[in-house]
Automatic annotation (TrEMBL):
It comes from Enterococcus rotai. Keywords: Membrane, Transmembrane, Transmembrane helix. Gene3D superfamilies: 3.30.10.20. The chain crosses the membrane at residues 139-158. This is PASTA domain-containing protein.
Length: 522
């Protein structure tokens, strides 16, 4: 089959056509002689003509729209004048028995032979009338497919970059903080006083049960509880019982109004004793929720005889005082204080004097020495090199951190307040003292740093020293070795402690002649 098809390509096709024309000319000579004979002789050939093989017309490579249109008027002319342009292909067919025999001359059969013939009877050139419609339909399908893909990509992007905000109203503010941290949403808290809500409870939020883009800001109003500046109309506690006063305080959220119960010889248990406001300048008429006050109620009568003599505990061990108080049912409060003279663990002073008579259940206090105290110095008066030697026996850890406002070497902070005292028995913390490194300076890392070294460089040089300087990488076409830093958004300059540096990493995919001009200034 491949040999047969090769005859119709290029030079083979021309050779095949010429050979066919020669055979045609040789076969036409006896045919022409037969045409010149009388009709009677031609009629004798009818049986032969009836049984002769008739050619089947097929369209070949010589066809064109112009040949088809002109075939009716010029087919005989083309046949006689340009026989070399035709290639005849004959196909043997069976003649139907019922067809009438017709006596035709050779010239007539030749004249009725269509011009459009092909050597291959199976080769037919056809025009599809639905081609344009199919083409339009194809473009429509491609357009719809592209639109669907774009919508799908947008939907996926939307799902990845947005998160649905729950309803936090009435819930604790801590839940909102946890949710925003986990979902990459910024949180802005606006605190307001709200009598109906407890402190740190969400009152309102600007987005609820809707999606918000990650990185956007969620604004919530959080309750500070009841307004401490609100003026409260005080009731007449004289007419109230103890339980009624407690209920009123709870309803009004007057947490700074304390109920004190005391024994009383004259007032029955649960009855009002007295009311007093701590700040003498505040009157009952303008009492605010923030003002401290006390309302006293009776616990009834309790009588103890003051027949217990208090000894002198000065200079004695604390254990001796506590044992005496336990034995005599005295409430003893022990305070501690440093002393330059009294040994640690010994009593410095007592609230009830020597030989004073007290009764059971009464209270007294003693102050016990903790020994000499270690005082925290003011490290702002020293340099970073002097800090450890000036610590007065306390442990100090000196650090230097970047700072935009404090110049290099200057004091920034210390973890323990100045003048705080620590006794010998107390656990002493390590005092963190911080001095400034000044502003961070970003060096040029191009052409000398690999991508794998960036993490260590940014941590050691900046992040470990208090500068929140991070980086983002992107990849560029370059002849430089793959993975090498070739571009930086900032370099060889001071930058803020909170910065993000854009770093271009070489793909190493270009040849030297394809290299683009360097970004480095000449």
């Amino acid at each position: 089959m491949s040999d047969f098809l090769s005859n119709f390509s290029g030079e083979n096709y021309e050779k095949t056509r010429q050979e066919k024309n020669k055979q045609k000319e040789q076969s036409d000579k006896p045919e022409r002689k037969k045409i010149a004979r009388p009709e009677k002789k031609a009629s004798k050939q009818e049986p032969l003509a009836d049984e002769a093989v008739q050619p089947e017309v097929s369209f070949g490579p010589q066809n064109s729209p112009e040949n088809v249109e002109n075939s009716t008027g010029e087919q005989h002319k083309n046949l006689t004048n340009e026989p070399e342009d035709l290639i005849y292909t004959k196909k043997r067919i069976k003649k139907k028995k019922y067809e009438p025999k017709k006596a035709t001359t050779t010239s007539e059969s030749v004249a009725t032979t269509p011009v459009n013939q092909s050597k291959n009877p199976e080769e037919v050139i056809e025009t599809d009338p639905t081609y344009k419609k199919k083409k339009i339909r194809k473009f429509i399908f491609l357009g719809l497919g592209g639109l669907a893909a774009a919508l799908l990509l947008y939907f996926g992007y939307y799902q990845l970059t947005h998160v649905k905000v729950p309803d936090f109203e009435g819930k604790e503010l801590s839940e909102v903080r946890v949710w925003t941290t986990e979902n990459g949403v910024k949180l802005q808290v606006e605190q307001k006083y709200d009598f109906a809500k407890e402190a740190n409870v969400v009152i309102h939020q600007n987005v609820k049960n809707k999606k918000i883009k990650k990185g956007k800001e969620l604004v919530v109003d959080a309750s500070l509880g009841a307004d401490p500046e609100e003026i409260i109309s005080l009731p007449d506690f004289k007419e109230m019982k103890l339980d009624d006063a407690k209920s009123w305080i709870k309803e009004q959220k007057a947490e700074n109004l304390a109920i004190i119960e005391e024994y009383s010889d004259k007032v029955a248990a649960g009855d009002y004793l007295k009311f007093e406001i701590t700040n003498k300048d505040v009157k009952a008429e303008n009492y605010k929720r923030k003002d401290k006050a006390k309302v006293y109620f009776s616990k009834g009568k309790e009588v103890f005889e003051k027949n217990i003599s208090v000894p002198d505990f000065a200079g004695k061990a604390k254990e001796e005082a506590t044992e005496w108080a336990k034995k005599n049912e005295i409430t003893l409060k022990v305070d501690e204080a440093d002393s330059e003279t009294v040994e640690s663990g010994k009593v410095i002073s007592q609230s009830v004097g020597k030989d004073t008579k007290v009764a059971k259940k009464e209270s007294m206090s003693v102050t016990v020495s903790t020994g000499k105290a270690l005082v925290v110095p003011d490290f702002s008066q020293f340099t970073a090199e002097e800090a450890e030697s000036k610590a007065n026996g306390l442990q100090v850890q000196v650090k230097q951190l970047f700072n935009d406002q404090v110049p290099y070497g200057q004091f920034i902070s210390q973890s323990v307040e100045i003048g705080k005292k620590y006794t010998e028995k107390e656990e002493k913390p390590v005092i963190q003292v911080v001095y400034s490194f000044g502003k961070p300076y970003l060096k040029d890392l191009r052409d000398s740093t690999l991508e794998g070294d960036l993490q260590k460089i940014f941590y050691d040089e900046y992040q470990s020293k208090g500068a929140n300087i991070t980086y983002q990488v992107y990849y560029v076409d370059s002849t430089v070795t793959k993975g090498t830093v070739v571009k930086m958004s900032q370099y060889n300059e001071f930058i803020p402690i909170n910065s993000v540096v854009q770093i271009g990493i070489s793909k190493g995919n270009l040849k030297p002649e394809e290299n683009k001009p360097s970004d480095k200034p000449e």
